């Protein structure tokens, strides 16, 4: 026979904590499933020719390189392509200090007029805690193509941008580390799986501690009550 007399305050706090831990675990598990599915989807590629860079409307987006974890600023150059303006993520400045827009030139790959090839990406809305942009300095903390275009006085801005090749230290073109599938970010799916296991594991530990404590103070018993002596 099980005898259980729960401690009210401890039970209330344990239920709340358990709900929080499970919700965190479920959230990380959903992120793991989303990123696993996104990793299997090919990134759309695009090539544009006959374009004209707009030198005085370059914008800068803060980013952390997925390959090296280095912070810096992505250089978004708007180019006139047909009847629209397309932003091209064309370079990365590996400095925490914001760049001076007057000192940054359009990358050589775009100045020469060579075809632009890269992933065609439609950015997602900024996360809730994203820092506010600083338009006067052309600084952004998420890709907001419409606002970036308005800040540069541009019209007919496309709802996608092209993540083109960067130029390496040796002057050669290297793949753009930010050319990720839609919905992907710098954390790999396995990291979210690890977080989910951690949160679920903490929930299990909480349950064990809760019942173990009740056993230790004799408020939970799996033995029948002792019969009174005659």
Describe the structure.
It is a single chain. This protein is an alpha+beta fold. The chain has two domains: 3-38 and 188-221; 45-174, no CATH class. It is 31% helix and 25% strand. The protein has four helices and twelve strands, in the order E-H-E-E-E-E-E-H-E-E-H-E-E-E-H-E. It has helices at 8-39, 108-111, 145-151, 189-216; strands at residues 3-4, 45-48, 51-53, 59-64, 71-81, 84-93, 116-121, 139-140, 157-164, 166-167, 173-174, 220-221. The strands form three sheets. Strands 2, 3, 4, 5, 6, 7, 8 and 9 form an eight-stranded mixed sheet that branches. A two-stranded antiparallel sheet has the order 1-12. It has a two-stranded antiparallel sheet with strand order 10-11. It is elongated.
Short structural summary:
The protein has 4 helices and 12 strands, in the order E-H-E-E-E-E-E-H-E-E-H-E-E-E-H-E. It has 230 residues and is α+β, with helices and mostly antiparallel strands.
């Amino acid at each position: 026979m099980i005898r259980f007399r729960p401690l009210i305050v401890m039970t209330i706090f344990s239920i709340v904590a358990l709900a929080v831990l499970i919700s965190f675990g479920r959230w990380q598990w959903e992120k793991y499933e989303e990123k696993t599915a996104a990793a299997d989807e090919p990134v759309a590629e695009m090539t544009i020719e006959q374009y004209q860079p707009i030198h005085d409307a370059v914008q800068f987006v803060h980013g952390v390189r997925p390959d090296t974890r280095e912070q810096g600023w992505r250089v978004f150059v708007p180019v006139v392509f047909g009847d629209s303006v397309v932003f091209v993520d064309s370079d990365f400045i590996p400095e925490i200090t914001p760049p001076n827009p007057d000192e940054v030139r359009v990358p050589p790959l775009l100045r020469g007029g060579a075809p632009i090839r890269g992933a065609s990406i439609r950015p997602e809305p900024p996360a809730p805690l994203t820092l506010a942009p600083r338009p006067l300095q052309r600084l952004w903390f998420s890709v907001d193509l419409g606002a970036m275009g308005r800040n540069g006085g541009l019209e007919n801005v496309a709802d996608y941008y092209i993540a083109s090749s960067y130029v390496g230290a040796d002057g050669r073109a290297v793949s753009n580390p930010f050319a990720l599938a839609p919905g992907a970010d710098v954390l790999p799916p396995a990291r979210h799986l690890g977080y989910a296991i951690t949160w679920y594991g903490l929930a299990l530990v909480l349950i064990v501690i809760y019942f173990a404590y009740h056993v230790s103070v004799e408020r939970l018993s799996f033995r029948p009550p002792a019969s009174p002596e005659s």
